[in-house]
């Protein structure tokens, strides 16, 4: 009997004392033998799970529309520039009904946001009942960029890690189920993707000179990610490290994580609040 995708989901889980240098960004040796081995096979798998994904999400949304306290999902995407966050949103979340998806991309905080605690703007964007929320970057920027660029003292950073753990534990109390994904891309692959953006006029809009500034701090960012993951990984909100050098592989991993979560929190279709037989009869009478 096949153990895929269980083996895949287990392998993505961040281990205690995570070292990113020891995690594959491409062709991971732990990739299950019965998992898709190439882009074409992965696309076939994506087509297979598109319907169950859509069905499970629609159940959540329908329950919320009927006023039920339906659970929600929050997909948190983190990764270096070009790691594929936007592609995940388009290709994975694109398989869901958009009316049941809430997407937010966090940029540098506004003056109003900076005047509040760093979690203030995050809390305002949590998904509502029955929704699948997506954060393209998140509250983790306040312990990643802040550490690398020394925008906060060590004491403040320590307090933020603890606040994040408490905050994510509270999500469970609100029936919000987090999926925390670190898209793990290699420095070599990032170079290729940045070079492509510079070569193609249709990709120039994706490029920012600041991408090179951050690339020069690559090792500092890798260390910041390791610290953030190790300090905030827990059973209530575990981290998943997804190999991101191959876009097809990363998208499949996130799709499987999303499907697994939706299967765990599945709800029945809401019962009709009307007499079905009577309504069928009324409809027949309109012929």
Percent of residues in helical segments? Answer: 40-55%
Shape assignment:
globular
User: Please, how many helices?
Assistant: 12
Summarize model confidence as the mean pLDDT. 96
Structural class: alpha/beta
Major sheet: size, sense and barrel closure? 5 strands, parallel
Distance between the termini: 52 Å
Structural Rg: 21 Å
CATH architecture: 3-Layer(aba) Sandwich
- The CATH topology is given as Rossmann fold
What is the level 1 CATH name? Alpha Beta
The residue ranges in which pLDDT falls below 50 over 5 or more consecutive positions are none
Strand order in the largest sheet = 2-3-1-4-5
Strand content: 5-15%
Question: How does this structure look, described?
Answer:
The protein is of the alpha/beta class. It has a single domain (6-284), classed as Rossmann fold. The chain is 48% helix and 11% strand. It has twelve helices and five strands. The protein has helices at 6-12, 39-65, 85-91, 111-114, 120-123, 141-148, 154-173, 187-199, 210-215, 218-232, 247-264, 276-284, and strands at 72-79, 101-105, 132-136, 176-184, 239-243. It has a five-stranded parallel β-sheet with strand order 2-3-1-4-5, with helices on both faces. Helix 6 (141-148) runs antiparallel to helix 7 (154-173) and helix 6 (141-148) runs antiparallel to helix 10 (218-232). The chain is globular. The termini are far apart.
């Amino acid at each position: 009997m096949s153990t895929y995708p269980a083996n895949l989901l287990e392998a993505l889980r961040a281990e205690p004392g995570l070292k990113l240098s020891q995690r594959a960004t491409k062709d991971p040796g732990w990739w299950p033998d019965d998992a898709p081995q190439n882009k074409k096979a992965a696309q076939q798998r994506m087509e297979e799970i598109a319907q169950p994904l859509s069905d499970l999400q629609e159940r959540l949304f329908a329950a919320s529309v009927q006023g039920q306290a339906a659970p929600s999902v929050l997909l948190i995407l983190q990764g270096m520039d070009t790691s594929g966050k936007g592609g995940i949103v388009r290709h994975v979340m694109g398989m869901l009904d958009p009316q049941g998806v809430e997407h937010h991309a966090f940029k540098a905080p506004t003056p109003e946001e900076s005047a509040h605690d760093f979690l203030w703007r995050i809390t305002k964007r949590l998904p509502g009942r029955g929704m699948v929320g997506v954060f393209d970057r998140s509250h983790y920027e306040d312990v990643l960029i802040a550490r690398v660029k020394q925008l906060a003292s060590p004491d403040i950073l320590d307090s933020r890690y603890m606040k994040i753990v408490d905050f994510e534990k509270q999500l469970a109390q609100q029936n919000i189920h987090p999926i925390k994904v670190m898209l793990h891309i290699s420095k070599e692959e990032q170079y290729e993707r940045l070079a492509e953006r510079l070569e193609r006029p249709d990709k120039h809009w994706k490029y920012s000179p600041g991408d090179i500034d951050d690339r020069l701090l690559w090792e500092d960012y890798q260390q910041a990610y390791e610290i953030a993951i190790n300090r905030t990984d827990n059973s209530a909100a575990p981290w998943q490290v997804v190999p991101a050098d191959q876009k097809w592989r990363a998208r499949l991993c996130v799709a499987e994580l999303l499907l697994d979560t939706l299967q765990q929190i599945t709800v029945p279709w809401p019962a009709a609040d009307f007499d079905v037989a009577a309504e069928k009869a009324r409809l027949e009478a309109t012929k």
